[in-house]
Amino acid sequence: MHKIFSAFWLTISISAFAQETTTPKIHGADVYGAKPNRPFLYKIPATGAKPVEYTVLGLPQGLTVDKNTGVISGVTPAKNNYTTRLIAKNNFGADTLTFDIKVGDEISLTPAMGWNSWNVFGLRVTDKDIRNAADVMVSTGLIDHGWGYINIDDGWESEERKPDGEIATNSKFPDLTALSDYIHSKGLKFGIYSSPGSRTCGGFLGSLNHEEQDIKTYEKWGVDYLKYDLCSYTVRTFLVKKNLQKPYIFMNQFIQNSNRDIVYSLCQYGLGKVWKWGKAVGGNSWRTTGDIVDTWASVNRLLNKQKRLSTFASPGHWNDPDMLVLGIVGWNNDSRKCRLTEAEQQLHFGMWSMLASPLLLGCDLTKIDSFTMSLITNDDIIALNQDRLGKQAAFIYEKDGIQVWSKPLSDGTTAIAIINLSAKEKTTTVKLDKISSGTFTTSKNLWSKQIAYLKDNSITATIPTHGILQFKLAK
Ligand code: GAL
């Protein structure tokens, strides 16, 4: 797609693509965090011609793997680091991965990956939309690349609680237990949304004065992820720092004491520099910005707000520059194709992966097009996001509309992204001594898959307007 030109580059094209699509390949992180004695669910993401048969060596007692689906389930054992070996096999071959199950106090050791209803269905969302998303996550094979959460955003709640104070759903969601069972039966996880105020941003019931009761209800429903907003809480308090932390600290105690691993996603738009205290209040992620929309101005603005935040991310605790706006989006209006160009969509996905952001698709999965699929099934890009070192890409420099970001990876290599924010195609040379000391000798282009030997510790590349190039560099 992009031209790389440099007289010094020796390119070796990868011709193994056909083979990759048939022999099994295990994707996703090689580490997973869970708390002891709670329901455990992990789907081994693996591509390859079906049927694929799954085995796990060294699985601790209490957990079993379904050999046909690759879903590991059961009750999480005692605190320990369990090193297992995942095996995926089919008629064409096999792949294996050493996989650590870290049972301890931390979950979400790599950023959550999944889907959320908001950017496409807004408050219109229905039970059927959620079931469709779960179905398509499996039927398109997205689940085999590590996409796992199915999250309902605002719009599921009623406007009045039940007589005993329990939160009620509106008529679009007749039975959340049944919906959650449906999602879990597919090896996917189930997320929900609420607000610490009396009302959500959409005007439905929030959790105010019912926080503990709501977490109990979520336990009953089998919730795995809570996006906790701020709407209406700010109306009754003043926006002082102490008050900003208060609702999140308060809710966190019930989440921590619950009998499920619930990913806690703070959604208060970056107020009070949340990245400085999001981890301390128990957040697994925290929004660092206002809402994203599907324009270049929005993606560019949100991205640039992440420049100085890399040191605040760590395994289990992520900066969140908001969800993805790829494919068919719509919010509260009719769904439509996202307004970003293809280069902009590639940059959006590539950079959100570099930033170790939660990756939540916000599109109509039932209408997903081949271009969007090609972006979100690029396993090399996903691997940057899911790397166990958990470093967020650091901003290196900007010159003439070109930005360079770099992300150290657990295998000792470094990923770099070169992006072009200007309105013209640009050719640039990046001197790699700006990234780290020592000399880089090889690179893999994570989009074209070309491997090259580097000379002079530099990369010269041509990047389209609003486009991205990403490389994995080795010394
Ligand atoms: C906003 C939030 C959005 C969405 C919306 C629901 O505050 O940033 O992502 O959740 O509320 O009403």
Task: Write a concise keyword list for the protein shown above.
seven-stranded antiparallel beta sheet; TIM Barrel; 21% helix; single chain; binds beta-D-galactopyranose; alpha/beta; 475 residues; Immunoglobulin-like; 3 domains
Total strand count, please? 28
Contiguous low-pLDDT stretches (5 residues minimum) are 1-20
Bound molecules: beta-D-galactopyranose
Alpha-carbon Rg, integer: 22 Å
State the domain count. 3
The CATH superfamily label of the largest domain reads Aldolase class I
* Largest beta sheet: strand ordering: 17-16-15-14-13-12-11-20
Helix fraction bin: 10-25%
Give the overall shape. globular
Strand content: 25-35%
- The chain-level mean pLDDT equals 94
The structure class reads: alpha/beta
What characterizes the major β-sheet? Answer: 8 strands, parallel
- What CATH first level of the largest domain would be assigned? Alpha Beta
**What is the number of helices?**
11
Please characterize this protein's 3D structure.
The protein has helices at residues 17-20, 118-121, 127-139, 176-185, 211-221, 233-236, 241-256, 296-304, 342-354, 370-376, 379-385, and strands at residues 10-12, 25-26, 31-34, 39-43, 46-47, 53-57, 63-65, 71-75, 80-90, 93-103, 113-116, 149-151, 189-194, 225-228, 263-266, 285-287, 318-320, 328-329, 336-337, 359-361, 394-399, 402-408, 414-420, 426-431, 442-445, 451-453, 458-463, 468-474. A hairpin with a 6-residue loop joins strand 18 and strand 19. The protein folds into three domains: 14-103, Immunoglobulin-like (Sandwich), CATH 2.60.40; 113-385, Aldolase class I (TIM Barrel), CATH 3.20.20.70; 394-474, Golgi alpha-mannosidase II (Immunoglobulin-like, Sandwich), CATH 2.60.40.1180. It is an alpha/beta fold and 475 residues long. It has eleven helices and 28 strands. The strands form seven sheets. Strands 17-16-15-14-13-12-11-20 form an eight-stranded parallel beta sheet. Bound molecules: beta-D-galactopyranose (GAL). Beta-D-galactopyranose binds at residues 118, 153-154, 193, 200-202, 229, 231, 267, 291.
